[in-house]
Amino acid sequence: MKLTRRSLSAGLLAAGSTVPLVAYADRIWPTQFNTDRARKAAARVSPILNDLFANQGSTLGSPVFVRILKEERVLELYGQIPAGPFKLLKSYPICTYSGTLGPKLQEGDNQSPEGFYFVTPDRLNPLSSFHLSFNIGFPNAYDRAHGRTGSFLMVHGSCVSIGCYAMTDAGIEEIYTSVAAALAAGQPIVRVHIFPFALTDDKLAQYVNHPWHDFWTNLKEGYDYFEHNRRPPNVEVVNRRYVFNTAS
148 versus 33: which is more confidently predicted? Predict the structure, then answer.
């Protein structure tokens, strides 16, 4: 049986039951859903998520996009209107992250990364030591091209960080369930874009003499793409710089 996003959402949101979602997920990656922790989290947050998605003309299981603004200490969760733009569903306060403004450079520097990352089904962890988590995929191609090292960089719960972006347990349950539902419904990857701050022209101009200004100017191209198109761009690395084009 093939479940559509509509039937997936309906199954997840059935009162007191996440069996249809778990049964569907069993065909793909059983561990990511078929745990007591993930099932209970989905049951707790599904009424909230149902309202969030419905208010934006969408349903749980629709494609999502995650954007993190480091200085503002906020994680933004966006959902896609069917065949249309992405709209902000909810902004979540980040409990804590490690380090200062600027990218992660090496393993053990206790610095939270900045750049363009994505989540695949195998990067979900419902058995995390930090409640629920997903690996953002650091180092990416850009990081490797610049010799940056690190591993197991996550968005997770428990409000503690040694390089990751830590959320409240209540927050990560909503974020994790939205990401997992989108992947289960067929979204190939969930993009996670991480910026030092909202990269407006005026804000970036304040950092013209900062050592990471050139790096942030490159990040701003991706930031502006989403601001103008309301769709996250496809991101590639050419000559050790990020380049952006229409996502497939």
Answer: 148
